[in-house]
Amino acid sequence: MLLVLCVDLDDDLGRKAGVETPVVGRDAVERAAVALATADPEDSDSNVLFEGLHIHDDITDERIEVAAVTGVESGGVAANRRVGEEVDTILAGLVTGEDVRALVVTDGAQDESVLPVIRSRLPVDGVRRVVVRQAQNLESIYYTMKQVLDDPETRGTILVPLGILLLIYPLVELAGRLGVPGTAVIGVISALLGLYVLFRGLGLERAVDESVARARSGLYAGRVMLITSVVALALFVIGGVSGVRTLDAAQAGAGALTPVDTAAAFVVGAVPWIAAAGVTSSVGRITDTYLAERFRWRYLNAPFYVLAIAAVLHGVGAYLLGDVGLSYMAVALTAGTLLGLVSTLAFAIAESRSPSVPEPA
């Protein structure tokens, strides 16, 4: 037996014509179609009902029945669930020993989204889409665009650049009234659009979102690392500025410098501050691991390693600049090496003699 199933997913039949569903039988479907066409002649769902009647009358070589089912106005899962319930009601009322198959009639892609629900209840032989010829595929295009714009990722990718482009003219006009060159506004907007496209293309927005989430989590969890990271960043910037100033002073005193002397001058000026940044950051991380009861003695090696490396770099850089003699560099190299070795050995012994706590998974 073939069941011609007319689908009205947004329940125009009930809301506009006041027809209770499901509607089963040729005469009942015809009355429902006339009632809907009378209530709203422009509603395409009336064409679906008349197409169902046409198919019912056109097929004469097998048993056939026509029915109409509806969803709810809001659509989505609730509409699909109601269509499934009405299909179950129809199947329960059909008294036949034959296998029932369905031919689904819809007015566009939106109504066809309920096909998996129907297929879960009976086989579907085909789908007949009915649209007004003058508006071929118009509803399908609208539904596709609606689905695309409902996706947050796609919406951000399409609408944000489009919005920036649409802002160019009004911002240039406003800038002209305020006496600001329009080329400057266009340049700023182009830069913002370029950065946005670059971030989307490289997938950097996920890294930024994760960093913000970690910072927010650290802020509310009371992590010391959040504060020490900010201080370490400030010290790192200061170290860069100090290195540049030391380089300028060396160039002012000795004129042009070789690439080796340039690197040495920058290192001598920057290393103390960068070392302080490293020590600050490592102390914050060690404090957080201790508070989280994940402390290991070997974690204390980090600040000592930073100091050892800083001593070696500073000694070599100062020697290359001629500020110190060979003995100072030898002392710096020896001190850095011994500091690293002693700290490693000391904390390894301390960890071997202290109770061990399982590493976090």
How do the helices and strands line up, and which of them pair or pack?
Layout: E1 2-8, H1 12-17, E2 23-24, H2 26-39, H3 45-58, E3 64-70, H4 76-93, E4 101-106, H5 109-112, H6 115-119, E5 124-129, H7 138-150, H8 152-166, H9 168-177, H10 182-202, H11 204-221, H12 224-254, H13 259-291, H14 301-321, H15 326-353
Parallel strand pairs: 1-3, 1-4, 4-5
Antiparallel strand pairs: 2-3
Helix pairs in contact: 2-3, 8-10, 9-10, 12-13, 13-14, 14-15
Based on the model shown, name its key terms.
361 residues; alpha/beta; 3 domains; five-stranded mixed sheet; 15 helices; transmembrane helix; membrane; transmembrane; DUF373
Summarize the structure.
The chain crosses the membrane at residues 178-199, 220-243, 263-283, 304-322, 328-350. The chain is of the alpha/beta class and 361 residues long. The protein folds into 3 domains: 2-141, no CATH class; 152-202; 220-353, no CATH class.
